[in-house]
Amino acid sequence: MFELKATSKNARLGVLTTRHGKAETPFFMPVATKLAVKLISSKDLKDLGLKSIISNAFILYLEPGLPLIKKAKGVHNFMNYQNVIFTDSGGFQMASPAFLESINEKGVSFRSPIDNSKHFITPEKDMEIQQSLQSDVAMALDYMPKFEDNYECIKESVNITYEWAKRCKKAHTDKKQLLFGITQGGTFNDLRKKSSELICGLDFDGYAIGGLGMGEGSELLHKAVKNSIQYMPKNKPRYLMGIGSVKDIVQGISNGVDIFDSCYVTRHSRHHVVFTREGEVRINKQKFKNDFNPLDKNCTCFVCKTYTRAYIYHLIKINELTWKRLVTWHNLYFVRELIDEIKTKIKEDKFDSFYKNFMKKWK
Ligand SMILES: [Zn+2]
């Protein structure tokens, strides 16, 4: 399922094989919670060279519902995207105050924000949902603590997540679908160690680092990542959930992470943020009014080959919505290209010098 091809320092290059083909790691997945990446079609994803996306099983279970997805013959056919689709269990959304009724070791009780109907999701039920969606990679149901939770709460989440992981493993019978376990532990060293050791003892197809990006800050985040990874096996993929910015992705790769997902890229695109090799710029600033350069002078995407900063600034000023799509396109292309360059550096065992240079330049 996963083959490690090369390493450079701690950075890794590998191949993840799924029933919808192979995806070279490291890779970044745009978030398609409801089987739609905001402003980006399935054809766009193909044209952008994005080999994987992540959807949300729990949200799809609520809307459009499993019978309709079944009628459409699975999530790939429904949205006509034939590359790798991950589904998150929805543990994170279920635990949000907007949904949650109660949570105990049996499962999660919550109300649907769509029709206020009551649902009780157990690890077994979650596996049933993800298997009927026919995603390529399912995620075990985890117990998501809040960042402000104290040590005892996070310790409890580590224990319950382990109990649920065992039940998910047992209930998961579709051998063509990969199943990843999720580790918790907040920013506590001993809990990260405990959770990694427990979950990695269950022989999942891959291991995720969950419960981060909750406001702990970059330093604590990457410390927790390192702490989790050192207890993970080398022959399985590692997935840092919900992270993050371009800098976090590059830093994550330097620590040995293989897979990322985040709504950072698409969301920031809609808030005027443009990625360039020197860092992020806000394209709605007055100084771009007369700037006839492309968004990023080193970028080869169709937006940069076709339009200037001045034109995109103009679209923003006249409130023509096309600018959001153009910026989203460029930023997704930018991240994919950057990771492709990193893969080449790993192959040549030159990741370290690339990393130092990138960190020095990125603002
Ligand atoms: Zn571009």
Do you know the CATH topology of the largest domain? Answer: TIM Barrel
What about the largest sheet?
A: 8 strands, parallel
CATH architectural name of the largest domain: Alpha-Beta Barrel
Whole-number mean pLDDT = 96
Distance between the termini: 37 Å
The CATH homologous superfamily name of the largest domain equals Queuine tRNA-ribosyltransferase-like
Question: Biggest sheet: strands side by side, in what order?
Answer: 4-14-13-12-11-10-6-5
Helical content (DSSP H or I, runs of 4+): 40-55%
Number of helices: 15
Number of strands: 16
Global Rg: 20 Å
Count of domain modules: 2
The fraction of residues assigned to DSSP E strands is 15-25%
Please state the overall shape, judged from the principal axes of the Cα atoms.
globular
Q: Which regions are unreliable across 5 or more consecutive residues at pLDDT < 50? A: none
Specify the structural class: alpha/beta
Listed once per kind, the bound small molecules are: zinc ion
Output the CATH class name of the largest domain: Alpha Beta
Structure description:
The protein is α/β, with parallel strands linked by helices and 363 residues long. The protein folds into two domains: 2-262, Alpha-Beta Barrel (TIM Barrel), CATH 3.20.20; 274-330, no CATH class. 41% of the residues lie in helices and 21% in strands. It is built from 15 helices and 16 strands. It has helices at residues 42-47, 57-62, 66-71, 75-79, 91-94, 123-133, 151-171, 189-200, 218-229, 246-254, 264-269, 302-306, 309-317, 322-347, 351-361, and strands at 2-8, 11-18, 21-25, 27-30, 52-56, 84-88, 100-104, 107-111, 118-121, 137-139, 178-183, 206-209, 238-240, 259-262, 273-276, 279-282. The strands form four sheets. Strands 4-14-13-12-11-10-6-5 form an eight-stranded parallel sheet. Strands 1-2-3 form a three-stranded antiparallel sheet. α6 (123-133) packs across α7 (151-171), α8 runs parallel beside α9 (218-229) and α13 (309-317) runs antiparallel to α14. The radius of gyration is 20 Å and the shape is globular. The model has no long low-confidence stretch (mean pLDDT 96). Zinc ion is lined by residues 295-296, 299, 301, 303-304, 330, 333. Zinc ion binds at residues 295-296, 299, 301, 303-304, 330, 333.
